[in-house]
Design a protein that fits this description.
Length: 405
């Protein structure tokens, strides 16, 4: 193998050997601390990507690192053929946030959603008196993103994600977010569940209104449907409550979690309300890695630190002035920014033109922030970001906007 450089650079190795399924930024990142990451030329960046809403406590939080190191030296993986103390404790803690129910552990967001979709199928079979294939419709939202497995992808009505992979899993229908009538119109005897992101992340930071969530809850109660919420991106404290739906004061029947839950360690989870938890029986679902001692210890460390340092309250307090500063920025540059959306530390900056040039310009100025659908830049700081760090991102954004006028 001939490489452009000797020895080959990381970029050379990616170019030669990595599947070309990503549009990657040109950076190679080599270390992180708190809200900062450094590249291989020792340039420092303010990281508002947080590994796509994953690094809840920033990079390499010392207490999180200590907990993970300690668990690594004690027990890492035994499979679900056995119990481990960390999984039991994490299930208890998550049910403490979600309500009386049971938890299944997996390794990613799309796997959590797969478990929800299979839950809906089981509920449909029960509704149809045991007959399979009769009651399997799941109503999702336009511009949703639920992941890349066949179930998640089939619930994600975007040509760029589905193209080339059809036929998809049957039974998905799509209403307009926040248009209750459009969801209601899709309900019939074959419907098993409604499944939405409480706040759409990849789709461009579009939140379900509290009225819409209450309306969905009522529709589900009236028609014996499961209300399933994808909190993979908006959960784990990102909005200033542990779950984003808490702001609306509703309780779903099932929740999908992942991303921020492990603070950087891969873990996914599904919580199911008690009334429906027994749809799953021994043998009808599983995961080899799911709920491993190390992954659960990492998630427990996130919860411990989040609770000890009162990070949810801090997100609520600091997001007010931060959002105000961002709205001020939008008012200063109305030809470039048309909206600031979101809740807590899940923020979408709506641009009036394509996002990639802005992402690149922000990076040049030392700020990493990811795009979302529809010309949106997301700002996803860690939950322990300081007011000063939040303001730094606003200042860098201002520099970039001013340079483009
Ligand atoms: C990221 C994401 C997923 C997929 O999670 P993976 O861990 O990448 O499988 C699903 N739903 C939402 C809302 C997400 O943001």
């Amino acid at each position: 193998m001939k490489y452009p450089h000797t020895p080959p650079t990381t970029a050379d190795l990616y170019d030669a050997h990595s599947l070309r399924n990503y549009n990657r930024s040109p950076l190679t990142l080599v270390r992180g601390a708190g809200i900062y990451v450094w590249d291989d030329e020792d340039r420092r960046f303010l990281d508002f990507t947080s590994g796509i809403a994953v690094n809840t406590l920033g990079h390499c939080h010392p207490d999180w690192v200590e907990a993970v190191q300690k668990q690594t030296a004690q027990l890492i993986h035994v499979s679900n053929l056995f119990r481990n103390p960390q999984q039991g404790e994490l299930a208890r803690r998550l049910a403490g946030y979600a309500g009386p129910g049971r938890v299944f552990f997996c390794n990613s967001g799309t796997e959590a959603n797969e478990a929800l979709i299979k839950l809906a199928r089981l509920h449909g079979v029960k509704k149809a008196g045991g007959e399979e294939g009769k009651c399997l419709k799941i109503i999702c939202a336009e511009s949703a993103f639920h992941g890349r497995t066949y179930g998640g992808m089939s619930a994600t009505p975007q040509d760029k994600i589905q193209k080339g992979f059809r036929p998809l899993v049957p039974g998905f229908a799509f209403g307009q977010l926040n248009d209750l009538a459009s969801f209601k119109a899709l309900i019939d005897d074959t419907t098993a569940a409604i499944f939405v992101e409480t706040i759409q992340g990849e789709g461009g930071i579009h939140a379900c209104t509290p009225e819409f969530l209450h309306g969905l809850r009522q529709l589900c109660d009236e028609h014996d449907l499961l209300l399933m919420l994808d909190e993979v991106q908006c959960g784990a404290g990102r909005t200033g409550r542990f779950f984003a739906f808490e702001h609306a004061g509703i309780v779903p029947d099932a929740i999908g979690m992942a991303k921020g839950l492990g603070g950087g360690f891969p873990i996914g989870a599904m919580w199911v309300r008690d009334a429906h938890a027994d749809l799953y029986q021994p043998g009808n679902h599983g995961s080899t890695f799911g709920g491993g001692a190390l992954a659960c210890a990492a998630a427990l460390a996130v919860l411990d630190i989040m609770e000890r340092d009162k990070l949810l309250a801090r997100v609520c307090e600091q997001s007010g002035p931060w959002h105000a500063a961002l709205r001020q920025l939008a008012a200063e540059f109305p030809t470039q920014l048309s909206d600031i959306r979101g809740q807590g530390y899940l923020v979408g900056v709506q641009l009036t033109s394509e996002a990639p040039p802005y992402v690149a310009a922000l990076r040049e100025q030392g700020l990493l922030a990811p795009m979302a659908g529809g010309n949106v830049i997301r700002l996803l700081p860690p939950l322990n970001a300081t007011a000063k760090e939040l303001q730094s991102a606003v200042d860098i954004f201002r520099t970039v906007l001013a340079a483009k006028t």
